[in-house]
Write a structure and sequence with these properties.
The chain contains ten helices and 16 strands. The chain is of the alpha/beta class. The two termini are about 20 Å apart.
Length: about 350
């Protein structure tokens, strides 16, 4: 096995970070996909295929042979174009910073260099998608197809606190409740209207009551909008809700409860859109692969977390899945996002060890 080079990893990380890739920006994502493919090909050889989609290009690479393990990641980020100018890539005091270093460009680089350390890369596939940050609608079918074909999935989202692996994830989804009322003059004839804002307030209370935090179910109204002018009874309102669940049973309960929401005011109508789009990732899905990681890195910890990833999809299909193998650091989606440089070599070596162990089963 070759020795991984931290300097080379930093060079590739800079290359990826300096091609901004906000979700839904198709031109930016096209440039980012080409860059990801070029880095893969330069380090691993072969040909990285760009898979077109309505959300931008996904990148797929295969080391040949019988598929045994899928390396899964994404190249889209949450940061708008121009963030790089304000927060350029830099390495200082042991940290690399810049948009996307932790979520999850650093993980991609570590995965690529971990594989590059292996003489034999057969049986390994890499899939880097373009829409994870916005729900993976265009990539889900491809992710599930390659996961089933390979039989084991390593997800390179950022590590849990302290460098731990992510052994379980909540299912998560977004709902939007739209209220239709009737406008009227707020001073002359307020009773002639149907106040969508008041109806939305009733709905918010009903929705918040669906949460069962004692069993891991959180139902959190996050965004609301209503009204046009201060003297008009509002005719429309919307409420957006974030949902997290730990079990399939809770997913079904929550989706049924949203479907059953009913208006409180005469004349008001409500429409519900959304679902728990990412099913829960049970810790049982990661148990086998985490045991391998523990043998490779004694003392490494595993943790169930609230956020979702594409690993939720693969785990829900019964494919062994281990997540949080990416960068050690923090600040995902925030200006203080960072990657710990000293941890990069160890994480790359963990990739190589896991791949070898999976292929030798």
């Amino acid at each position: 096995m070759h020795t991984v080079s931290v300097d080379a990893m930093i060079e590739d990380l800079r290359t990826l970070v300096e091609v901004e890739s906000p979700s839904r920006d198709l031109d930016a994502l096209a440039a980012s996909a080409k860059t990801v493919a070029a880095v893969i090909e330069s380090r691993l050889g072969g040909h990285a295929v760009l898979v077109g989609s309505e959300a931008g290009p996904h990148v797929h690479w295969s080391g040949g042979g019988e598929p045994r393990v899928l390396i899964l990641g994404h190249h889209d980020t949450v940061f708008p174009l121009g963030t790089l100018a304000r927060r350029p890539f830099k390495v200082e005091d042991g940290h690399a910073t810049g948009p996307g270093v932790f979520d999850m460009l650093g993980g991609l680089v570590q995965a690529i260099h971990g594989l590059a350390a292996l003489e034999d890369r057969s049986g390994v596939e890499i899939l880097v998608t373009a829409d994870e940050e916005v729900g993976s609608r265009s990539s889900r079918a491809l992710i599930e197809e390659r996961a089933l074909a390979c039989g084991a999935v390593l997800v390179f989202e950022g590590a849990a606190d302290g460098g731990g692996l992510k052994t379980g994830r909540k299912g998560c989804g977004t709902f939007q409740v739209s209220v239709a009322g009737r406008a009227s003059h707020a001073g002359l004839e307020p009773a002639a209207g149907v106040n969508a804002l008041i109806e939305a307030a009733h709905q918010v209370l009903d929705i918040a009551a669906l949460g069962r935090p004692e069993i891991g179910t959180t139902v959190t109204p996050t965004v609301a909008a209503a009204g046009t002018l201060d003297n008009v009874v509002p005719a429309e309102a919307t409420v957006v809700v974030d949902v997290r669940v730990e079990t399939a049973e809770e997913k079904e309960r929550i989706e049924a409860a949203f479907a059953a929401l009913a208006p409180h005011l005469d004349g008001a109508e409500i429409t519900v859109e959304g679902a728990v789009g990412r099913p829960p990732m049970p810790e049982s899905a990661s148990a086998e692969l985490f045991a391998v990681a523990e043998r490779l890195v004694p003392g490494i910890v595993g943790k169930a977390v609230g956020g979702g990833s594409d690993g939720n999809f693969t785990a829900a299909m019964g494919v062994p899945t281990l997540d949080g193998l990416g960068a050690v650091g923090g600040g995902a989606h925030a200006d203080h996002e960072y990657l710990v440089v000293d941890a990069m070599a160890g994480r790359a070596n963990l990739v190589a060890g896991l791949v070898k162990a999976i292929r030798n089963k």
